[in-house]
Design goal:
By secondary structure, the protein is an all-alpha fold. The chain has one domain (about 1-95). Helices cover about 75% and strands about 0% of the residues. The longest helix is centred in the N-terminal third of the chain and has 30 residues, at about 1-30. InterPro entries: CCB3/YggT. Keywords: Membrane, Transmembrane, Transmembrane helix. This is Integral membrane protein YggT, involved in response to extracytoplasmic stress (Osmotic shock).
Length: about 100
Amino acid sequence: MAYALYQIIVILLDVLWWIIIIQAVMSWLIAFNIVNMGSDFVRTVMTALDRMTAPIYNPIRRIMPDLGALDLTPMVVLLAILIIRQAVLPPLFGLV
């Protein structure tokens, strides 16, 4: 039972990892004007990604210093996911 719960948490962390990666790539494509926010599809995808990540990003953004146009919040979240997945979960579930 514990291993099944461990696997579910790992899968959810993997999904969150890819959501953050896709959002970062999409924001770069928009910033370099490769894709246009005038497109309904692009706007819908970005809105959905923003709504999925905002609850995770907002507490971290309150703590981090303002660096202007540079937002390091996704990198901090990806680092936290990596630490949780590799250093916290295995000992917590007795898999070490």
